Amino acid sequence: MWNRYSLAARPFSGEGRPWETAGSIHSPADLKRLNFTQMTELAEEIREFLIQTLSKTGGHLGPNLGVVELTLALHTVFNTPDDKLLFDVSHQAYIHKMLTGRLERMGTIRQPGGLNGFMLRTESEHDCYGAGHAGTALSAALGMAVARDLAGARST
Questions:
Q1: Is 38 exposed, middle or buried (0-12, 13-18, 19+ CB in 10 A)?
Q2: What DSSP character marks residue 93?
Q3: Which tens digit of pLDDT belongs to each residue from 44-99?
């Protein structure tokens, strides 16, 4: 019986954009026009894409499968790069990378010359800090908030 995690359900070649809904997302702004049904379909497509891509490249599958809807919600409510999104475990940011213009390069994640497995400021303006494993988000958020306040800026 097919379930949404089955690799054979909708084969993905690894080239171009994966499926109908995901193929229409080029930036976080595109999420704001999706209805609930489309957002649900996008979450499913992202999971299938992650499973198929990471089965070839390696990477952090479990942490990303667990934050698909969370990342979609964050990018729907907030406006990166003006608003800063921080992931305490930066290797949970694969969906964030997919939604911020790097979907077509996901097949290169953790490969020489490819996308980094963590958030990396030099990789995208949507990555507000470079971090690896757990424990850095709170101090990074505090530093960003203090810098924002000192500059008299208004962002989240």
A1: middle
A2: -
A3: 999 999 999 999 998 889 889 999 999 999 999 999 999 999 888 888 999 999 99
As given in the structure block, the two tokens for residue 62 are 């479990």
> What residue has token string 């077509």?
104
* Paired tokens of 97: 């990378």
Per-residue b or e along 96-130, where b marks 16 or more CB atoms closer than 10 Å to that residue's CB: bbbbbebbeebbebeeeeebbbbbbeebbebbbbe
Q: Radius of gyration over alpha carbons of the chain, in Å?
A: 16
pTM of the model: 0.83
Q: What burial class does residue 86 get, using C-beta atoms within 10 Å of its C-beta: 0-12 exposed, 13-18 middle, 19+ buried?
A: middle
Crossing angle of helices 36-57 and 68-77, in 10° steps, is 130
